[in-house]
Amino acid sequence: MKVTVENKKGLNKDIKVLIDKKTMDSYMDEKYEEIKSTVNLKGFRPGKVPREVLKRQFGKAVFNEVLDKVLKDTSTKALEENKIKPAGQPKLDLKTYGEDKELEYVLSVTELPKVNIKGISDIKFNNYVVKIDASETDKRIKEIAKNQPNFKDASDDAKANDGDLVVLDYNATVDDKSFKGSEGKNTQLTLGKDLFLKGFDKQLIGVKKNDTKIVEAVLPENFPEKELANKKSKFMCKIISVKKPEEVKITDDFAKNLGAKDLDDLKKLISNQINDEYKNSLDRLVKNQILKELEKFKIEEIPENLIEEEIKILSQGMSEDDTKKSRKNFEDIAKKRIKTGLILNEFGEQNQIKVTESELQAEIQKQIRMMPGQEKMVMDFYQKNPSAVSSLRGTVYEDKIMNLIKEKAKSNKKEISKDEAEKILKDSQKQQLDQELKDQRKPEKKVEPKKSAENKTKPKPIKTKSVVKKTKKVSKK
């Protein structure tokens, strides 16, 4: 194989590839030998069909399969050997081809620009550490206790009020007729929450143990028995007991019921939980801070085809006129995104950052844990959607890159209070909103460097459909 690289303009290159006739013949011989033992033709024993007969019968199909394979193999090799990373799909132009001929073709490639990442170690960013005051932890624990009320039986003559728990049996009728699901035993209602039927709780205010109370309520629109939806019903209620809320005592036993070893352990867990809530938000802020610094890096030329692809994404759903009006703004945004992606990709490659299968599976398990009760649905989603797994891989890849950048860059550690963290996040959100209003565009999508790396830095097999008309593959039966 003879390869000649010609620089055209900027990042554009023409790669001329010549495969001599002898090499092409060897490919053809190999293919004929492959099909010889499998093709069955009348009048010939298996494996004994003469090549001339095979050529008459399958010559065109054999050549097209061989040509397709040679183009894919040699184009990929030509790019790799010359260390050319194409920005998008190269265009292929066949110059000379045919049976018993040499093969000559030209790859027109837009190359990814060279990226200098030396300045990454000079990036400065704020590394926030939120100090959670003990009073904040105690406040959160009290809120948890408040939302887990403990009820105690009231005296027999105690009347039910808002916030009390009423235990009752009931029989319901519509037009004096019972219906499916019209009975309830030991039903518990916390008065004031109105979780059963609208207006039901209010009518139980003032009842006592052993009282009988008729409650009227309208069945909901989504009632299972459709013919009864929105119908007025009567509930004959027998009050079993009235329970008064009792303040939950925050003790070791309370902590154990929540899965902690004791109260001190619960305080540590809650403190860490509050810290994590702010850490995640602040980490996103730090990430954006680093990405903004990367935007300042210089890249001499951004491939036009990548800019056009990005503009298409930015203008999705917009009219042609609106797209034209926003063209200049979209170009600026596209260039920033592409530049940032190229820098992150280069950093990932130079530092040999990869996503292992175990890391990917750990991230999937993390996603599953975030949706309790829907674990099977989430797992099925990832099993049936390879693109979702690929996107998740990109997220993990990006996180690994950002973490390594933080290690290499200059961190300014800042210990802040919860109130200071809230102010920083609030100010950041305001700045982002102001910028979006200024740009008059949708919020930017996050950079997915892994996707870019896979699509733009690894030479792809060249598609040949537009060059060679496909014929049926060789039948081996």
Walk me through this protein's architecture:
- A hairpin with a 4-residue loop joins β1 (2-7) and β2 (12-19).
- The protein is α+β, with helices and mostly antiparallel strands.
- It has three domains: 2-110, Trigger factor ribosome-binding domain (Alpha-Beta Plaits, 2-Layer Sandwich), CATH 3.30.70; 118-134 and 261-456, Trigger factor, C-terminal domain (Trigger factor, domain 2), CATH 1.10.3120.10; 149-246, Roll (Chitinase A, domain 3), CATH 3.10.50.40.
- 45% of the residues lie in helices and 18% in strands.
- Strands 6, 7, 8, 9 and 10 form a five-stranded antiparallel beta sheet that branches. A four-stranded antiparallel beta sheet has the order 1-2-4-3. A two-stranded parallel sheet has the order 5-11.
- α1 (21-36) crosses α2 and α5 runs parallel beside α12 (418-439).
- Residues 442-477 have low confidence and may be disordered.
- It starts with a strand and ends in a 21-residue tail after the last helix.
- It has helices spanning 21-36, 51-81, 134-146, 252-257, 263-294, 304-314, 320-325, 327-350, 357-369, 375-384, 386-408, 418-439, 449-456; strands at residues 2-7, 12-19, 91-96, 103-110, 124-131, 150-153, 165-173, 183-190, 212-218, 232-246, 410-417.
Per CATH, the architecture of the largest domain is Orthogonal Bundle
Separate helix tally: 13
User: How many β-strands, per DSSP?
Assistant: 11
- The tally of domains stands at 3
CA-based gyration radius: 35 Å
Q: Could you tell me how far the N terminus lies from the C terminus, measured between alpha carbons in angstroms?
A: 34 Å
Summarize model confidence as the mean pLDDT. Answer: 86
- Highest CATH level, the class of the largest domain: Mainly Alpha
Low-confidence stretches: 442-477
What is the structural class? alpha+beta
The H/E string reads: EEHHEEEHEEEEEHHHHHHHHEHH
